[in-house]
User: Fold these one by one.
Assistant:
Number 1:
Amino acid sequence: MDDNGRLSLDMIIGVSIFLFVFIYVAQFLPSVFADVRSEISLAHEAYKVAVILAEDPGRWDNGSMNGTGWENHWNELNVVFRPGLAYSRDHPNYLSYEKIKAFQDAVDDNYTKVKEYLGLKTPDSDYEFNVSIQTLDSKPYRKTLIQDWDGNYTLNAGRAIVTTQMARFERIVWIDDIEELTGNITIDTDKGSYPTTICTLSGSDVDCRFNYIYPVNMFVIDVLQLYTPSPTLSLCLDIGSCAAGSCSLGGPNLIHIDGTDINLEEREYNLKDLINQKFKELGAKNGDNVCIRVSVRDLKVKLYQSDTIDYIAGNPTAKLVVVVWQ
Amino acid sequence: MNNKAQALTLEGVTAALLLLLVLYTLFQSSLVISPVWSELGDAQLKQIGYDTLRVLDRDESYNDSLKYMLYHLNKTDPEYPKPNEEFINSLETLLTSSIRYRLEVSWTNITGNSTLRNFNFIENLVLINNTPTPDAVMVSRLVVLDNRSLTPSSPFMPNLDNVTSSYPIVVEVRLILWAV
């Protein structure tokens, strides 16, 4: 029999295996990269939203009037707006507290509309988002939100994050209204004024108590006026709950902090580092309850203190975190 | 016996296994070979660096500001050129423990006398000398210092013969960051 010109069985099997694998790869490979492509596009969206919010003051328009003060007009009829949280275009990263609160209200009021204004909902795409202001040491797996002085979250707008397939972008920002974040604790011994919820009058001195979780994030004393005859301020540090009695006042014209004296002048003192160092020397561990007792005589001072926000180079500083997913 | 037109089983199986091996390797490495992922990581790290320098670039009345740190660098200090403690604390609070950093400054040193000024000497100083990894990113910010506020022991003081200079000193602060 003449076998020439016949197709070899080896070749048929080889070509079959090759074609089978080739078709399988050709069909499967795009779906492998689809995930990557999708997450890359998510990251671009997260970056875009973070830039819009951190660097732009936003804009509103109703057809006859417009401006950057969208926080006062977003809920009016026939108004379109682009949310931005920056205080002004010249001050990127410097966020307006008023705009932050308006953004929270606008998202709570109409999430889909804000999504469209941020460019996250178009005819071709639809992304979900969450925007929050978090502490500098907040992590994706251990989220810590910044709180206002009244305990409410400063910003936590958008949907709850329910997926692991998402993109996250962070910006470091500072916020303009320190009193909304830390409370207005003004003590004026000559006028007998002080916050009665945390301070008491003891003769001519005012004694206050503050409870924290160690390490302390922010403790700033702004000395506004020295009165005669003996202006003095003392801080006593306790691990656990506050010790009984007031913090004893030392010599005049000094700030006494648990054995360390600083000259008392009419200026701002950022005492966070010194207080944390003292607590560390006393044996405080991360997460311990601690107490600061403050006694004031012949002074007008403002205290800025927070459990969550950090005070850096004269400003309350935090992270703006944008998370986007599909 | 006529062996023509029979399957060579061993070769067929080897070829199929080879293809499957290539396929498996391809799937396993598909995320690693995508360069865009590392670029996204770099973009986030760079942005944190730029934001950090921007936040710290405040008035020198704050002890943890960039300007205070630069004005208070002192060549006679035993710890020179280490920045002041408050600045380091704030910088490390901003960067958090997951980011390591190296800090450098460079500026143009002005030399000469009353008639001739030279601006040709670029000075460099490493303030925090950590060794970066190969995937580190660098960000920088220009800070303008007032010549008249510098002390004689400042490294930025112009080196002029008996002449006072009113030229501002422009210092480039470079922050090199990498994730750990």
Note: The helical segments of chain B are 9-28, 35-56, 66-71, 85-95.
Number 2:
Amino acid sequence: MAIFKKPTFRGSGDKKRDMPEGLWQKCPDCGEVIHELELKKNLRTCSNCNHHFTLSAQERIDGLADPGSFEELDRTLTSIDALGFKTYTEKIEKYRKATGLNEAVVTGRMRIIGHSAMLCVMDFRFLGASMGSAVGEKITRAIETATSEKSAVVIVSASGGARMHEGILSLMQMAKTSGALALHGQAKLPFISVLTHPTTGGVTASFATLGDIILAEPGCMIGFAGPRVIKETTHQELPEGFQTAEFMHEHGLIDMIVERRDLRDRLAALLGYLLP
Amino acid sequence: MRPMMLDYVASCFEEFIELHGDRHIGDDAAMPAGLARIAGQRCVVIGHEKGRETREKLRRNFGSANPEGYRKALRVMRMAEKFGLPVVTIIDTPGAYPGIGAEERNIAEAIAFNLREMMLLRTPVVAAVIGEGGSGGALGIGVADRVLMMENAYYSVISPEGCAAILWKDRKHAQEAAEAMKLDANNLNRLEVIDEIVPEPKNGAHSDPAVAADLLKAAIVRNLKDIVNVPIDELLERRYAKFRRMGQFDETES
């Protein structure tokens, strides 16, 4: 019955491209078109449905640290192609140029409403903020420095997981970062983990879920295995809202879901209890 | 077929008394654990068991442990610490189980928690990768003072098929992915991720399981002997330093 055949729907590809670069953004949840200035004012959350857009590391730092208080550490540390893996070197170079960062995590000392803490922020734009040797090393150094300076650690995670291009060395960063947190915890110092969209794989299975307190932004995806892998392995339909912050909160992984506009105050309040 | 965890437990250890349950949710048959004796040395042994026949494979979930497996493993390790028994772990898993229930019961946290707690475990730990060292599921019982790896085993951040599916967009490129990831014992030894390669019979462990077991047993016993008398604080410092060194990066200003 060819005459009843629905015409192919065209143009469903990438609607964002229709928008003038950078000036207007379309909310991926509700479709609301938001002006860049308004988005900025709302810390990149949708004024209509409260969708939390992804932040760059710099935007996150600006939103958390007291003005002028952030002192970056290990800024020049970057990945090398230890395994001779395909086009990894070019890839790294490409992301360095595109993001202006040397690696997928920015670390440094900060003050947050007067409380000093070590802050690590992952930037999803840089190769999906995957964790290779450089990310693992920067986070480990930040934790070790916090241990020796007797300060708290706050890590804002967003990651596709371990970085395949560095093979086993990436996997070992899970043990390295978790080990550094073991010593930090032994020194009775607090670690607050903030999960943002998306936090998955080897990052979820290491430092990100080891917080004394674990916070998450609303609606963000949190999981170990990818939904496609789970579906292919189990041949089961995934439950509604599977692997969202709300789902993980219900299943006991997350202490609280915190709106972006409340995050700074909430972190400072928590630090006030754990390390006054 | 290569010998599996319980095969080696039967052939390398004089006795094995299996213990069950994570004390919270259930028992995971993919991760047997128990008290054992190897060359007269009391210890605990924990590992992934894949199972051999179809029914057994299903019961063992093909060696893919759920959170209960990792939590049982840690419970038994803590018991070992309490009673001064060294820990032997035997790694053979395609990965932790990617299931709905596993996610609901926070498999990532179960693995992460083991990584952290094993770094502080005040008893010697020897790990042996005997077949598949699949990603976080392998590492979740792999933070050890000595990591041994059988000659033909692999240990990797992701399965070659998974890597091929992502980077080549086709699982058929698994062979190339495996080569690119350098996941074999020689490369891992060179990268200082493992401490020792355990030789296998000329045609592989499956060609002569008895000889393979003798070689594995000798390596485990020798490594245990090396570390059981090291003062525990020194052992923990060395354990931390070993994993701390892993990774390669650059920090020259460019």
Note: The CA atoms of residues 47 and 90 of chain B lie 4 Å apart.
